Amino acid sequence: MKQLYFLLCLLLVGCRSEPKVDYEAQKSATFTTAAVAGPHPLATRTAVEVLRRGGNAIDAAVAMQFAMAVVFPRAGNIGGGGFLVYRAADGATLSLDYRETAPAAASRDMYLDTAGNVTEGLSTRGHLAVGVPGTVAGIAAMHERLGTLPWAELLQPAIDFARDGYRLSESEIDRLKRYHADFNEFNETTPFSDSTLGAGAQVKQPDLAATLIRIQEAGRDGFYTGETADLIVAEMESGGGLITRDDLAAYAPAWKEPITKDYKGYRLLSMPPSSSGGVALAQMAEMVEPYPLGDYGFQSVRSVQVIAEAMRRAYADRAEYLGDAKFYPVPVDSLLDDAYLRQRMADFRFDTAGTSVTTVAGQVAMKENFETTHISIVDSLGNAVSITTTLNGNYGSKVMVDGGGFFLNNEMDDFSAKPGVPNMFGLVGKEANAIEPGKRMLSSMTPTIVEKEGELFMVIGAPGGSTIITAVLQTFLNVAEYGMELPEAVAAPRFHHQWLPDQILYETDALAGGVLDSLTELGYQFREVNSMAVIKAVRVLPDGSLQAAADPRNPDDDVEGY
Ligand code: GLY
């Protein structure tokens, strides 16, 4: 078997073209046949090359995720986790949860000191912050079920980028420099040394290339067993981390039914728990649906009030009820019940701001600086892929597996370390999201597909921590309610409310024309931020062509297609 792989690799190496080292990102374009939106031009081009060779959207997503693990190291990953929402051309839908899990040795109070207080940094930096990675198992599972091109072929572009090198983008160089001291704290060496970070720098990642070749040869076992697993466990042991060989061998992704929500002729399909994204998105859509937002106007006082109050209520429920449904009886049906959600807005009034003191989680029947990244793909047949994947923070825990060449996540911070104490996104949680061995930490990732009158309409998602869900909602509403073209809808300034803290975050250009002052007079509190969440989307236009839009908020965001 090994010899066969060796021959295959030789063949592939012989055929491979030199990796592209130059690129310009484009933020929007319309294509006749297939389209990809993602965080980096080398990754989007990798996906389009697969599509042109006859691969389907899943094949393209497989190759693109591995390519992102090389060329977009701050969030692209094999050491993290993610979610897929999939809609086949015939309308069948699926989702795949490949979120990280807590190691078997994790415990509820593992981040608390002897006085019961959260120890700063323990869940966000270093070896103890790392959850058992799910990415490689997830990619293997989606390929096994839905892919068509050979696995080894789809790994090859990523291997080429890692072994032969590629030019770092300016924005990645800036980011890498910012985290250099962190890398030095947790690693003897990384490929991102000062000498590789000059303008136009080329970087090679030979250890990562070797890891990817092991995955190319052995599939998921090339990561979860054998040499790669040994390297991860050795890294854990060197820094006081918890992940064992058994944790790695036991990791399993889970196929699930997407959350669905109808909205004025549209249907939103999104991610169920262990993400909060689908539930919260559906809740907010249901709460705002009775209001004529289009008539109120984009970011008018009334529109902002209705949407912000729906956000407040959804995030209050998130904190109380959402977590890994395998470990906690998340009352999804009750949370999505139309009558419950209409009643949730019953105390909303236009003449004053609501408050997160009186607005707490509803009573439902019980039967639950950041980096993530997203890709949206539609192939020539009309299959649609929406994938959000994450290391959590930029470069995750900042721990790179020695000899393995990849960063490990700091996803453990997405658990509630202590009830009511905010995580790095300011999100609070309770019992539903307490740490337990083998449990998935609650996510905000919201990979979403939208249908209109039963046909594919839009593929959408974003990185951005807690602001992902509200950014997906606003981008959808910008098109569905405010009549914007997709590029305009993606670029439009956004706001965000997450129940606690009781304030509206807004991007610098948002809430213009006196709206901010009017809302302040009503009693709302605000905090200005430079930018939040970075959308990548594809929309099917009435003539069947595909309009792809990436986000000007990330210089490297890119769309490609044909
Ligand atoms: N790590 C960010 C999220 O999953 O929401």
UniProtKB/TrEMBL annotation:
<dbReference type="InterPro" id="IPR043137">
    <property type="entry name" value="GGT_ssub_C"/>
</dbReference>
<dbReference type="GO" id="GO:0103068">
    <property type="term" value="F:leukotriene C4 gamma-glutamyl transferase activity"/>
</dbReference>
<dbReference type="InterPro" id="IPR055262">
    <property type="entry name" value="GGT_CS"/>
</dbReference>
<feature type="binding site">
    <location>
        <begin position="390"/>
        <end position="392"/>
    </location>
    <ligand>
        <name>L-glutamate</name>
    </ligand>
</feature>
<feature type="binding site">
    <location>
        <position position="414"/>
    </location>
    <ligand>
        <name>L-glutamate</name>
    </ligand>
</feature>
<protein>
    <recommendedName>
        <fullName>Glutathione hydrolase proenzyme</fullName>
        <ecNumber>2.3.2.2</ecNumber>
        <ecNumber>3.4.19.13</ecNumber>
    </recommendedName>
</protein>
<dbReference type="InterPro" id="IPR043138">
    <property type="entry name" value="GGT_lsub"/>
</dbReference>
<dbReference type="GO" id="GO:0036374">
    <property type="term" value="F:glutathione hydrolase activity"/>
</dbReference>
<feature type="binding site">
    <location>
        <begin position="443"/>
        <end position="444"/>
    </location>
    <ligand>
        <name>L-glutamate</name>
    </ligand>
</feature>
<keyword id="KW-0012">Acyltransferase</keyword>
<dbReference type="GO" id="GO:0006751">
    <property type="term" value="P:glutathione catabolic process"/>
</dbReference>
<comment type="pathway">
    <text>Sulfur metabolism; glutathione metabolism.</text>
</comment>
<feature type="binding site">
    <location>
        <position position="465"/>
    </location>
    <ligand>
        <name>L-glutamate</name>
    </ligand>
</feature>
<feature type="active site" description="Nucleophile">
    <location>
        <position position="372"/>
    </location>
</feature>
<keyword id="KW-0378">Hydrolase</keyword>
<comment type="similarity">
    <text>Belongs to the gamma-glutamyltransferase family.</text>
</comment>
<dbReference type="InterPro" id="IPR051792">
    <property type="entry name" value="GGT_bact"/>
</dbReference>
<dbReference type="InterPro" id="IPR029055">
    <property type="entry name" value="Ntn_hydrolases_N"/>
</dbReference>
<dbReference type="InterPro" id="IPR000101">
    <property type="entry name" value="GGT_peptidase"/>
</dbReference>
<keyword id="KW-0865">Zymogen</keyword>
<dbReference type="Pfam" id="PF01019">
    <property type="entry name" value="G_glu_transpept"/>
</dbReference>
<dbReference type="GO" id="GO:0006750">
    <property type="term" value="P:glutathione biosynthetic process"/>
</dbReference>
<keyword id="KW-0808">Transferase</keyword>
<keyword id="KW-0317">Glutathione biosynthesis</keyword>
<feature type="binding site">
    <location>
        <position position="99"/>
    </location>
    <ligand>
        <name>L-glutamate</name>
    </ligand>
</feature>
<comment type="subunit">
    <text>This enzyme consists of two polypeptide chains, which are synthesized in precursor form from a single polypeptide.</text>
</comment>
